[in-house]
Write the C-alpha cells for this entry.
Amino acid sequence: MSHLAWASSAEGKGAERGLRRGAWYPVLETSDRFVVLDVNDIEVRFTRERLRFRAAPPSGWTVVQLSPEEATAEARAHGHPDTEGVRVYLVCPGCHSRYHLREVAQEARCEECGNTYPVHGATTA
C-alpha cells in the first residue's frame, strides 16, 4: 500500500493519542485541517499543527533528545537507569524500537531487529 506521506509527533504533541516520540506513521487521509494516521493498525485523526511531515519513511535512526525531567520519566516508564548519560535515544526506522545511548555515532545496529542504519544528525523529535 502506498502512503500519502509520513508523520511524526511535533515536539511530543501527539503522545496523548498514542504517538511515540521519534516514530514515523503513515498518513492515510488528509484534509485542510486534519490528517488520519495509521497508529499500530488503528486510524487516528490529528490536527496538522500536532505533526511534522515527510514524503517517505526515514532510512536512518531518529534521534530523540530529552530534558532532565523527560529522561527521568522515560527511565521510570521503561525501566532503565536515570543517569546523566542517558538523555538521548534513537528510534529504529525498521521496527521502531528504542535504543538508549551516551554518544551518537555515524550508524547503529538495532538490538531488536538486527539491522544497521545510519544515524541522521542529532535532531529533537
